[in-house]
């Protein structure tokens, strides 16, 4: 295993690139243009510097990560030599299929193609390639450098060899892997979206404040973060796309809370926009 290519330099893409680089892999991060990648590089460098100065990274790992990270706007250049490609673009099935069709043409036949999705179908994505047996979902969690879990989701055609390969990568990234047979929402997203959506309904109905709903879940049920805080961190637009997908595939109990819909319409997207269920300076 030599090179991991990450497609998409948003929050998740940057996190996956960082975790892969500090674990010793050569990493190429790809996005639409150099301006976007320069911003991603700045964020990753700041995280590397902070982790090093706080003692979380030894100097050797820090220097190796700096040397291992490359930034490339040309998709073919970024992916042609990869052993593993991890796609981390928006949760839109049409966009993911388009990316995988391009990767299928560019990458070596033995390259494994993984989608970092919380809800989408690796079977549907893999069917649009000539290598469905080498397509799998690797669902990372935010923030990637702190969260220990990767959901490894096998599609209908995903081979045992591919599942074993990505589970070995998870170990190399110092993560724990759980193996999941594909079904909309997998394990964590189905549970998490239900909890978050009900918290939004509670807020909309005036049952309690956002602060007290989150406090109740943290202190009463030992959740490390409240469901509304978590939705703000993930991004309310991302959460809405997930809910709409689950609603379409699993039915009425996943109908998005009207308050979530209105917040997204108003541009209240959570932490990334400065305002969601909470305000951020």
What share of the residues does DSSP label as strand, in percent? 5-15%
Number of strands: 8
Mean pLDDT: 94
**Largest sheet, spatial ordering of strands:** 3-2-1-4-5-6-7-8
Number of helices: 12
Estimated radius of gyration: 19 Å
Helix content: 40-55%
Net shape:
globular
Structural class: alpha/beta
Poorly predicted runs of 5 or more residues? none
**First CA to last CA: what distance?**
42 Å
Main sheet characteristics? 8 strands, mixed
Would you kindly provide a written description of the structure presented here, covering whatever features stand out?
The chain is an alpha/beta fold. The protein has twelve helices and eight strands. The protein has an eight-stranded mixed sheet with strand order 3-2-1-4-5-6-7-8, sandwiched between helices. Helix 6 links the parallel strand 5 and strand 6. Helix 1 packs across helix 3, helix 2 runs antiparallel to helix 3 and helix 8 crosses helix 10. It starts with a strand and ends in a 16-residue tail after the last helix.
């Amino acid at each position: 295993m030599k090179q991991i290519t990450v497609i998409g330099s948003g929050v998740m893409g940057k996190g996956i690139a960082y975790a892969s680089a500090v674990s010793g892999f050569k990493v190429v991060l790809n996005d639409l243009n150099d301006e976007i990648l320069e911003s991603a590089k700045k964020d990753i460098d700041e995280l590397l510097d902070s982790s090093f100065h706080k003692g979380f990274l030894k100097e050797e790992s820090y220097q190796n990560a700096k040397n291992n990270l490359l930034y490339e706007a040309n998709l073919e250049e970024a992916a042609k030599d990869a052993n593993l490609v991890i796609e981390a673009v928006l949760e839109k099935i049409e966009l993911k299929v388009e990316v995988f069709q391009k990767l299928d043409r560019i990458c070596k036949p033995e390259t494994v193609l993984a989608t970092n999705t919380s809800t989408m179908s690796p079977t549907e994505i893999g069917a649009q390639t000539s290598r469905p047996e080498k397509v799998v979902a690797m669902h990372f969690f935010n923030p990637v450098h702190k969260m220990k879990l990767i959901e490894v989701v096998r599609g209908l055609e995903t081979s045992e060899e591919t599942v074993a390969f990505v589970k070995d990568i998870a170990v190399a990234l110092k993560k724990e892997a759980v193996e999941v047979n594909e079904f909309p929402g997998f394990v964590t997203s189905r549970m998490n979206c239900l909890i978050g959506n009900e918290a939004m309904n509670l807020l909309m109905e005036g049952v309690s404040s956002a602060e007290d709903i989150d406090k109740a879940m943290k202190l009463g049920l030992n959740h490390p973060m409240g469901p509304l805080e978590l939705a703000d961190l993930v991004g309310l637009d991302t959460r809405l796309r997930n809910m709409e997908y689950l609603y379409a595939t699993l039915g009425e109990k996943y109908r998005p809370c009207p308050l979530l819909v209105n917040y997204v319409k108003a541009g209240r997207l959570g932490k990334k926009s400065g305002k969601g269920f909470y305000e951020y300076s």
